[in-house]
Specification:
2 copies of one chain form a homodimer. Helix content of chain A is 43%, strand content 21%. By secondary structure, the first copy, chain A, is α+β, with helices and mostly antiparallel strands. In chain A, a hairpin with a 2-residue loop joins strand 10 and strand 11. Chain A binds a DNA duplex (30 and 30 nucleotides) through helix 7.
Chain lengths: 245, 245
DNA sequence: CGCCATACATAACGTATGTTGTTCGGGACA
DNA sequence: TGTCCCGAACAACATACGTTATGTATGGCG
């Protein structure tokens, strides 16, 4: 829940009353273990589920049975849009690690949002950023070679973790397996492995034991051709990210 | 403008007053010719631009100078989200044909939307569908081989044109060049040409003189592994699409 | 300590797709 | 009617990435 408030607050300033109101919208809390399905295509959920701890992903199954991850969900991310309509999902959501979920009451939440408030703006921003990320992923998988693609994903994830205050210096908890990364990037697990080794050999990052360490942030950014514009950070993170080098 | 109302009305029922109110939100109208830039990355637009005639695209430039189209915009599609925040674009928008644009006043539009109205729901749906399309594109470019990818795109575009009432039987106006298609699908122009020829040889479609003709809709759908679930048509188009075979 | 499951690494080989360059045909325009 | 030019077609070649197969760590657990 605090990750969620952190994230919304990052994009638009929330008042104390709004923060309290959000807590009042909590309907229930759940735990899921790694690999479990959170929601399936076709389902309509009445509430709004928030990832409060752990990572999850949205994915689609392809004609050949392989899965493509179309979005990674970090703490603070929502499973559904905060919108008046409860739309049936067109994809599945799966836990990539053990997960804590907080379910908000959709009606209550909608009633709490007053126009021109920080909350209203923050939710709008969050939705826009989610979409921007998909656009950047589209560019990533179509135009960048494997290693660059991977580097770009790592940059994005490090930035997103910084936004919700989950980085420690140049390190962060990183529950993705190589298979999950390959499914995100449209690569085979083998080729992802090769690419990861390349980044390691170049002394750019190290990924091991569920920990991602950024060895040389400026060079990693250059290698990936990364810019955090599409995350709409507004430069608010430059200090945190400099720490990472 | 009518395409826009058509589209919103397809997803949620608009009252006569709401339709009239939308007309009142019109701020100005513009013409653009093919190739012109509608909006550039970093720009914030105060109004909401609607494509009323012609096609446009959102695209991003890659490190090697090539362009990736991340969304195709048909009549009725919006350039910006109808949200309280005017967010700087993270990509460019370009006219793929001669274009007519209608600009709505954001503040007026927002004030016209009452909660739990058809308009409110329709706009929410439209935004959800835009996002779903991106998710499907992500699957398309990463997991499907070239010809299947192309077939899938053609199915999608035919469905979207049917939604706004711009198909004639098994035909539709189709302003995309092969280069534009290749930029949408993450293929080289040459390989797109090969794929298009394959679909033609298989007697599935014919694309010529800016017209797309569906020769065999059921087989095209099967070949593409297409389902319009992600467009949330709710089966409302089955009649129109049967016409296409 | 030994068993097993899972994740990660490496190699050999095949193939889908990209690249370069050339040719062709049909509108636009003089 | 001829000329120009853009979009489309085609061929020869290059390569990045996928596939299959097998080997190596690591950690949980009785």
């Amino acid at each position: 829940m605090y990750s969620f408030i952190n994230k919304i607050n990052f994009y638009a300033c929330l008042s104390q009353t709004e923060k309290a109101a959000l807590h009042d919208c909590v309907d229930s809390k759940h735990h899921l273990s790694r690999g479990q399905t959170l929601a399936s295509a076709g389902e309509k959920t009445d509430g709004i589920d928030i990832v409060t701890d752990g990572w999850a992903c949205r994915f689609k199954r392809a004609h050949d049975g392989s899965d493509q991850i179309i979005a990674l969900m970090l703490p603070g991310d929502q499973c559904e849009d905060v919108s008046p309509v409860a739309c049936p999902l067109d994809h599945d959501i799966r836990a990539l690690s053990d997960l804590r979920i907080t379910r908000l009451d959709r009606r209550k939440l909608l009633s709490v949002i007053s126009p021109d408030s920080g909350l209203s703006d923050g939710l709008a921003w969050s939705s826009i950023v989610d979409r921007s990320i998909m656009g950047e992923w589209l560019l990533n998988v179509t135009r960048r070679p494997a290693a660059m693609r991977l580097a770009h994903l790592l940059c994005e994830l490090f930035t997103r973790c910084a936004i919700i205050g989950r980085t420690q210096g140049n390190r962060m908890h990183f529950p993705l397996t190589q298979v999950a990364m390959s499914e995100s990037l449209g690569l085979s697990p083998v080729h992802l492995n090769r690419s990861l080794q390349l980044l390691r050999r170049q002394q750019l990052v190290s990924v091991c034991r569920k920990t991602l360490t950024i060895i040389d942030w400026p060079r990693l950014v250059a290698f990936a051709g990364y810019s955090d514009h599409y995350l709409h950070t507004g430069g608010k993170l430059s200090a945190d990210l400099r720490l990472a080098s």
